[in-house]
Each structure stands twice: as C-alpha cells, then as structure tokens.
Amino acid sequence: MAHAIRFHQTGGPEVLQWETVDVGAPGAGEVTVRHHAIGLNYIDTYHRSGLYPMPLPSGLGIEGAGVVEAVGEGVTDFAPGDRVAYAGGPLGAYSEVRNLPAHRVVKLPAGLSFEQGAAMMLQGLTAQYLLRRTYRVQPGDTVLIHAAAGGVGLIACQWAKALGATVIGTVGSDAKAELARAHGCDHPIVYTREKFAERVREITGGAGLPVVYDSIGKDTFMDSLRCLRPLGMMVLFGAASGPVPPFDLGLLNTMGSLYVTRPGIAAYTAKREDLVAMANELFEVVESGKVRIEINQRYALRDAAQAHSDLEARRTTGSTILLP
Ligand SMILES: NC(=O)c1ccc[n+]([C@@H]2O[C@H](COP(=O)([O-])OP(=O)(O)OC[C@H]3O[C@@H](n4cnc5c(N)ncnc54)[C@H](OP(=O)(O)O)[C@@H]3O)[C@@H](O)[C@H]2O)c1
C-alpha cells in the first residue's frame, strides 16, 4: 500500500485528497517507480478543475523522478535500481510509488538530482520543443515569452538567450521582472501595469517579432498577435488565464498573414526516439550550465492543495516540486 493524492470530483484545490492506494505489480510494458520528487505543473490545475476533462476518480500529475523498483513483462530498457525521470503519460505522479508505461521514462544522468529531474522534465521538454521545433529560434531573433518568471518561463528565457536570441518577457510584478532578467530576459515587461504590445513595438523599432510564446491564453492572445511581424508565428501553448474564445481566422490575413499553432507536449513526445532525443538535449543544456533549473518552492506531497493554490494565485516562481 502507498499514499497518493486523488480527486473524485473536479473543482478547486480542496478536491485533492490524500488516500491510500494499492499499486500492485507492474503490468506488461510498465515499470514501478518509487518517487523521490514529483513535478508540479500548471496542467495539473486544468485536470483538477475540469478544464481538461478526465474520467473520475483519478490520480493527478504527469511528472516525477525516482528509482525503478520493478519491471513488467517485456521491459528490457530498465532494471530495478535505475534512476529515472518522466513527463507525460497517464495521470498519477502525485504518489509515493506508481506504475507507468516504460516508454514514457528516461534514465536520469548521474550528474542530475531527482529534484532537478522532477522539476525540469515537463517544463524543460516543453521549452525544448517550443524553441527548437515549433519555431526554431535563430541567433539574432527577438522573441516574446509570456510568464517569463514561471516554470517554463525561466527555462525558456535562459535557453532562448543561449541560442543567441534577444528575449522579451512578460511578468506579473517587479520582483518577477528582476528574476527573469537574471535568467536571460533582456526586456522584462510588467504586463499587469504596462501594455506589452506597445512595449514590444518600441523595443523592436516597430518591426514586430517572428514568434510569440503565449501560455496565458484569454488575457493576452489578441495583444500577442499584435506583437508579430508579417508571417510571424503565434505559439499558444497554455491557458493560465483561461481558454481563448472562438476567433475569426480572417484576422490572421489582415494582421499580416500570421501563423497560429496550439501545440501540446504529447504530440511532440509521442515517438520514443523523439522523447529520448529531446530529453538528451535538455540534459545537455542543464549539465552545461546554460540553463539552471530553479526550484523555488517545495511542498510535502500531502500538501498538494496548498501548492495548487499558490500556483494559481501567481505566488510561485520558477519550478515547484512535491516531496513524498
Ligand atoms: N502545451 C504544452 O505542451 C505545455 C507544457 C507545459 C506547460 N504549458 C503551459 O505553460 C504555462 C506555464 O506552465 P508552468 O507550469 O510553468 O506554470 P507557471 O508559468 O510557473 O505559472 C503560471 C504563471 O502564469 C502567469 N499568469 C498570468 N495570468 C494568470 C492568471 N490569470 N492566473 C494564473 N497565472 C497567471 C503567472 O505569472 P505572472 O504573475 O508573471 O503573470 C503564473 O505564475 C501554463 O499555461 C501551462 O499550461 C504548456
């Protein structure tokens, strides 16, 4: 028997319950992982609130790091004792121990801690595909990254800077602006006070940007489009302020033949070889020191509800982990 956070109905953080669960032996193709640390991600709040509907009751969480305790039939890549990390796959990371498909798991390099692994897999792999694949950042590009002091934000700012970009970032406070600046953001904009589209036009001398990475959604989407140069790419990858309402595609023409994409990590990591290549690139930028994983909040796993409250109230910066 083990403990896990589960929920039986959607709603606020109070629906999260600390329960006893029977994990059982791993099924065919699965590994049993004992978590040393678990990643907290904004998507966990979408699952909990019902924005992304899931069958209930359900576990929660899609990111963790720990040690393999057992392997199911047909698993040849992993053995008990392996240090591993993962992002994605079935919900259930908010647990002391769990089973999950081996094809979602990668070995954690010896130079990286469990805490780093749990903090960076989802946010770091997201930064990887956004900057390296969705719109491949080139030296000399100027890019806009929203929520620059957040989990994905701090990683993406550092990585974009290392790729030779000039980084503009939006943040919710002056303290977050300083934090973003210390992590590669050349031009932090406090978007709760300043009109970010106007500031972007000023910073780029009216030219606009080749790409905007927007994880805020409803509150920023239209102004993000206004930041783009002709043929620019709007990458809408989250909805921290709520989903973007239906939208007239004709605007993309009148605003300069813009592109819009709404990517998710699942499609980018669906093939095992892609997941492994992306993870290797992430591990390399972290081990080289180009990207630091800032774990600015730690909570006991059983206090996951408090962690959700703090994340949704914009009280966190960088990455957050839950400790079993
Ligand atoms: N599509 C994908 O593959 C993928 C993968 C991972 C994450 N994401 C998305 O990326 C975003 C960042 O995820 P994260 O885990 O790193 O979270 P995070 O950025 O650490 O936290 C969310 C941040 O959004 C900002 N925000 C702006 N308006 C907000 C509002 N109305 N309510 C709450 N927060 C608001 C806050 O920063 P300020 O106070 O500075 O505004 C807050 O700290 C999320 O939207 C998430 O869904 C997408």
From TrEMBL:
<keyword id="KW-0560">Oxidoreductase</keyword>
<dbReference type="InterPro" id="IPR002364">
    <property type="entry name" value="Quin_OxRdtase/zeta-crystal_CS"/>
</dbReference>
<feature type="domain" description="Enoyl reductase (ER)">
    <location>
        <begin position="11"/>
        <end position="322"/>
    </location>
</feature>
<protein>
    <submittedName>
        <fullName>NADPH:quinone reductase</fullName>
        <ecNumber>1.6.5.5</ecNumber>
    </submittedName>
</protein>
<dbReference type="InterPro" id="IPR013154">
    <property type="entry name" value="ADH-like_N"/>
</dbReference>
<dbReference type="InterPro" id="IPR013149">
    <property type="entry name" value="ADH-like_C"/>
</dbReference>
<dbReference type="InterPro" id="IPR020843">
    <property type="entry name" value="ER"/>
</dbReference>
<dbReference type="Pfam" id="PF08240">
    <property type="entry name" value="ADH_N"/>
</dbReference>
<dbReference type="InterPro" id="IPR047618">
    <property type="entry name" value="QOR-like"/>
</dbReference>
<dbReference type="InterPro" id="IPR011032">
    <property type="entry name" value="GroES-like_sf"/>
</dbReference>
<keyword id="KW-0521">NADP</keyword>
<dbReference type="GO" id="GO:0003960">
    <property type="term" value="F:quinone reductase (NADPH) activity"/>
</dbReference>
<dbReference type="InterPro" id="IPR036291">
    <property type="entry name" value="NAD(P)-bd_dom_sf"/>
</dbReference>
<dbReference type="Pfam" id="PF00107">
    <property type="entry name" value="ADH_zinc_N"/>
</dbReference>
